[in-house]
């Protein structure tokens, strides 16, 4: 999300920030500008007069008088710590956890669930098929996997319509398994689907390719990772 349309949506201006003494007051005022169901979080930063704002999965900073703003990483040069990344991770996790499970294709953990991950996939992606092949190992390790579609060629592409056909199948998980294993998609009629919503989420999160995994703490793992290394990262050595 670009800063300008974001500020327009909030009605931000120097007038809007006059006499705002703290983050709580600022959050209350900004929240009133948003439509129902959308929320904003405002936090003070270690920099006097600079506030961190999280909205719709995006993190940016604004001065207390509303005059200055930037979007990027705030770095503590003394500790070499990225102060923005924890907020970004939480924003990503919150976005994905707010998506109803029935808008994903879910592979539940076997036994006790230890971790939960979201995987953005493209039916035409060879490494997505490779990652799909280790789903059973992840499930056995206690990992629940939620699949979302990210056709890399965008709306109207062959993989976009393929994703819709998979979603609209009577047994979409079985259809997805077959598509990833054989490359064939079912000949189904178009139905209501969340593929556009998946694409919008991917854009907010910053997905640039596939496969792309986001963990339940908001950490991102782009690309394919060998199963042993991935499982150790997710749940520790077994």
From TrEMBL:
CC terms in the record's Gene Ontology section: periplasmic space
Keywords, sorted A to Z: Disulfide bond, Periplasm, Redox-active center, Signal
Disulfide bond recorded as keyword: yes
Gene3D superfamilies: Disulphide bond isomerase, DsbC/G, N-terminal, Glutaredoxin
Pfam families in UniProt: DsbC_N, Thioredoxin_2
Main location: periplasm
Domain Disulphide bond isomerase DsbC/G N-terminal residue range list: 19-85
Record's signal peptide: 1-21
Localization, UniProt: Periplasm
Thioredoxin-like fold domain segment(s): 109-233
SUPFAM superfamilies named among the record's database cross-references: DsbC/DsbG N-terminal domain-like, Thioredoxin-like
Protein family: Belongs to the thioredoxin family. DsbC subfamily.
Function summary: Required for disulfide bond formation in some periplasmic proteins. Acts by transferring its disulfide bond to other proteins and is reduced in the process.
PANTHER family: THIOL:DISULFIDE INTERCHANGE PROTEIN DSBC, THIOL:DISULFIDE INTERCHANGE PROTEIN DSBC-RELATED
Stated name of the protein: Thiol:disulfide interchange protein
Source organism: Sulfurivirga caldicuralii
């Amino acid at each position: 999300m670009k800063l300008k349309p974001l500020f327009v949506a909030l009605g931000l201006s120097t007038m809007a920030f006059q006499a705002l003494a703290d983050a709580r007051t600022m959050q209350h005022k900004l929240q009133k500008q948003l439509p129902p169901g959308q929320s904003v979080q405002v936090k003070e930063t270690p920099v006097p007069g600079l506030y961190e704002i999280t909205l719709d999965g995006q993190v940016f900073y604004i001065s207390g008088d509303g005059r200055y703003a930037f979007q990027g990483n705030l770095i503590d040069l003394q500790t070499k710590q990225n102060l923005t990344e924890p907020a970004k991770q939480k924003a990503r996790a919150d976005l994905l956890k707010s998506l109803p499970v029935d808008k994903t294709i879910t592979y539940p953990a076997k036994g006790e669930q230890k971790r939960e991950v979201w995987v953005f996939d493209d039916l035409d992606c060879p490494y997505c098929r490779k990652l799909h092949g280790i789903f059973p190992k992840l499930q056995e390790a206690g990992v629940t996997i939620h699949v979302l579609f990210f056709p890399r060629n965008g709306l109207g592409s062959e993989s976009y319509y393929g994703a819709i056909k998979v979603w609209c199948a009577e047994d979409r998980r079985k259809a997805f398994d077959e598509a990833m294993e054989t490359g064939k998609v079912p000949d189904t009629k178009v139905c209501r689907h969340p593929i556009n919503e998946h694409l919008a989420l991917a854009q907010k999160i910053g997905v640039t390719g596939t496969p792309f995994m986001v963990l339940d703490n908001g950490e991102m793992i782009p690309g394919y990772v060998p199963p042993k290394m991935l499982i150790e990262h997710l749940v520790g050595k077994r």
